[in-house]
Design the sequence.
């Protein structure tokens, strides 16, 4: 380990960390968690939880959905939890990722007799390599995110929420109207589109989708950790907490809000791409306001401004959704109740439970007693 | 106090500001010189409005402010700090759930050469730059006796310490002109001593032009060789501490008749407010 950096009189430049493994607690726990999740398809130890039993296709798919929603939630967290900007175009940006990778990687249209297989316009695309389309689509979605974010320069709170909500819906509308706008969009209108399946070394659709989703979650996690612990993180916090003072500090709050929109768009598209591989079919109605509400539930239930919040929220959300998939009305009722309870009892989400416990009078009392016992 | 050049780095020229029909500043002419400049006056006199014009929150309706002869209204509010104007606020504007050091680092925002893409990949140059910036900020905190608290959450500090953190944040930007809005309000005697010691050092070493809005008359008179008294948007008196405290117009408008009588009794020992 590198020596602790200090100034000339010996004051440390970075917050002091405990020695050895304890100082790396965060990193170690993250590596262990991701290693565990990566091994799960071969270790179906969640069998007792039928919904997440990775021994079955059903459980594997559900976990892949969890990761995709969590990745989108991490991006949403960046925008809402960190920069404090209530932008609600996330479902539209998610749709760009799902549709964008599907269309760009689908084989080109071919109706002649000479074709090896006949490819009808409904499933046709541009035939680009799938792994190349992901970064391109994500960058495109960040640019769209920045454009959607422009109202943020002038609007605040509810007004911003409504403006971005409308722009997000507009994206979904454009997808379902493709023939009337530009046939090159190839979104196949409102009927939906088959997603060409990508497989890692012939490991099968579900395992590939699982690892794509886990990869998307890992990328958003790493990006989130690096950015929130460095200069961008503190600058975004200043935009959230002391926007009035940013001008004299030389910080352009508009510029940083747009950065937050761009990054959240990137994460949303990445998650959307992984999600579409798992669901194998995309339809405009999957990306309407309902998806936005789902993503908000994932974020708020899990905990805004917390790294692990979206993952916890996504696990709870997918569990409830699968458990009550037969009765949609009951599902929405339960999600509504869960959201209300979270806001009333745990405003910072389930991820804040350990902090709540640590700061509770009961735990403080316990710690004090344990101390006296030792002496 | 110091042998500074007499050219004024910051001057207000016939500055008028009105909000609707409410005239807040009516033709203020001041040449702020390097060293301590006091700005006093009753509540609502327009002191903070002058600062707000300088940092770009408010536009002048007539006249303007000039930094080294350059019209400030040509500069975007976000570009003013790199041209040498820093400020603090009446109530500290700090991120309470960030560390003290992170708050001070915000003051160096414009000093960073590396962008946020290099930050994502943690390139060595970028990390070195962050280290250097942190060192500058720690040194600054040490100057004001807060280096011990650098990694504490800002919200855990007393209001007085928070105000000093804000001064540090303004100073790490290496300003030519520093605007302090009631820096001593809410500070204990000990904090005031530390604050003034640090500020004096910067004024002497860096030839800093410091403008202080303050209600603690004792402090202002002890600190500032030149004081401007603002009343209803006009400068009613300017000069040395002695000149303004004996000026009948100032006594009438701001100090109150009691001040003059108290002064005769016990040589200005009592609190002016």
Sequence:
């Amino acid at each position: 380990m590198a020596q602790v950096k200090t100034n000339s009189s010996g004051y440390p430049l970075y917050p002091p960390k405990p020695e050895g493994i304890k100082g790396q607690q965060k990193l170690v726990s993250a590596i262990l968690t991701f290693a565990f999740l990566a091994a799960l398809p071969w270790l179906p130890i969640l069998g007792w939880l039928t919904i997440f039993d990775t021994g079955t296709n059903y459980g594997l798919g559900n976990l892949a959905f969890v990761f995709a929603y969590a990745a989108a939630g991490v991006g949403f967290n960046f925008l809402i939890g960190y920069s404090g900007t209530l932008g609600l175009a996330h479902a539209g940006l998610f749709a760009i990722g799902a549709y964008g990778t599907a269309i760009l990687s689908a084989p080109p249209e071919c109706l002649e007799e000479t074709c090896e297989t006949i490819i009808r316009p409904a499933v046709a695309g541009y035939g680009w390599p799938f792994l190349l389309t992901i970064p391109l689509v994500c960058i495109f979605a960040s640019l769209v995110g920045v454009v959607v974010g422009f109202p943020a320069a002038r609007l605040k709170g509810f007004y911003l929420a409504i403006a971005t909500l409308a722009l997000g819906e507009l994206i979904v509308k454009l997808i379902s109207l493709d023939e009337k706008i530009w046939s090159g969009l190839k979104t196949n209108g409102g009927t939906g589109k088959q997603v060409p399946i990508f497989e890692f070394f012939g490991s099968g659709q579900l395992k590939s989708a699982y690892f794509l989703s886990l990869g998307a979650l890992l990328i958003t996690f790493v990006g989130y950790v690096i950015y929130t612990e460095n200069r961008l993180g503190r600058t975004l916090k200043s935009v959230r907490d002391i926007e009035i003072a940013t001008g004299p500090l030389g910080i352009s709050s508009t510029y940083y809000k747009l950065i937050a929109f761009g990054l959240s768009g990137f994460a949303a598209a990445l998650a959307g791409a992984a999600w579409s591989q798992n669901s194998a079919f995309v339809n405009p109605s999957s990306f309407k306001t309902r998806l936005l509400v789902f993503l908000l539930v994932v974020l708020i239930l899990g905990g805004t401004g917390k790294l692990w919040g979206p993952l916890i929220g996504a696990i709870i959300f997918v569990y409830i959704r699968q458990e009550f998939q037969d009765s949609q009305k009951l599902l929405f009722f339960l999600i509504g109740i869960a959201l209300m309870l979270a806001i009333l009892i745990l405003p910072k989400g389930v991820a804040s439970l350990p902090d709540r416990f640590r700061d509770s009078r009961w735990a403080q009392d316990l710690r004090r007693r344990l101390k006296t016992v030792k002496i | 106090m110091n042998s500074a050049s007499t050219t004024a780095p910051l001057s207000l020229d016939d500055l008028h500001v009105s909000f609707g029909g409410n005239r807040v500043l009516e033709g203020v002419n001041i040449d702020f010189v390097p060293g301590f400049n006091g700005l006093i006056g009753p509540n609502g006199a327009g002191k903070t409005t002058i600062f707000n014009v300088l940092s770009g929150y408010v536009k002048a309706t007539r006249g303007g402010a000039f930094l080294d002869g350059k019209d400030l209204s040509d500069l975007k509010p976000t570009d003013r700090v790199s041209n040498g104007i820093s400020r603090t606020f009446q109530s500290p504007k700090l991120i309470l759930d960030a560390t003290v050091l992170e708050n001070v680092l915000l003051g160096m925002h414009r000093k960073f050469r590396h962008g946020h893409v290099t930050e994502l990949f943690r390139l060595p140059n970028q990390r070195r730059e962050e280290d250097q910036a942190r060192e500058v900020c720690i040194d600054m905190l040490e100057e004001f006796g807060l280096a011990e608290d650098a990694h504490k959450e800002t919200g855990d500090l007393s209001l007085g310490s928070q105000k000093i953190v804000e001064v540090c944040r303004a100073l790490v930007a290496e300003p030519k002109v520093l605007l302090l809005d009631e820096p001593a309000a809410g500070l204990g005697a000990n904090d005031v001593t530390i604050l003034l010691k640090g500020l004096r050092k910067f004024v002497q070493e860096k030839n800093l032009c410091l403008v202080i809005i303050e209600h603690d008359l004792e402090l202002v008179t002890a600190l500032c060789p030149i004081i401007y008294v603002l009343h209803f948007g006009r400068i009613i008196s300017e000069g040395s501490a002695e000149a303004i405290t004996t000026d009948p117009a100032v006594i009438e408008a701001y100090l109150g008749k009691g001040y003059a009588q108290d002064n005769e009794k016990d040589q200005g020992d009592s609190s002016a407010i």
